[in-house]
Amino acid sequence: MLVAHSYSGAVITNRSQLWQEDERVADAVRRLTALKPAGVDTIADPTVIGLGRDVARIAKVNALVGISIIAATGIYTHIRDAVLPALRQAGVTDEQLGTMLIDNPGRYFT
User: What is the pairing mode between strands 42-45 and 68-71?
Assistant: First the structure.
């Protein structure tokens, strides 16, 4: 059975400055381990860059539980907020950005 991590009640990503790493990891391990007897073998964590994803934390929790965690690979706001400004500052033109972000992927995904 595959479930999204929000259904398990475990929180393995967070951007808060008040984050308590050890307590949150222990809670995630406890909650995710409890899912195994219910038939859950895999969960999908939809959190992407720009929403607080921490792949190192996901890997740490995954190593401690008996189920697989699939991490999202999406970029979401990271391109808009970090990549595009950095590329523009480096002198990349809008035409070049269009080629990189629209034309090139379009050739492979259509």
Answer: parallel
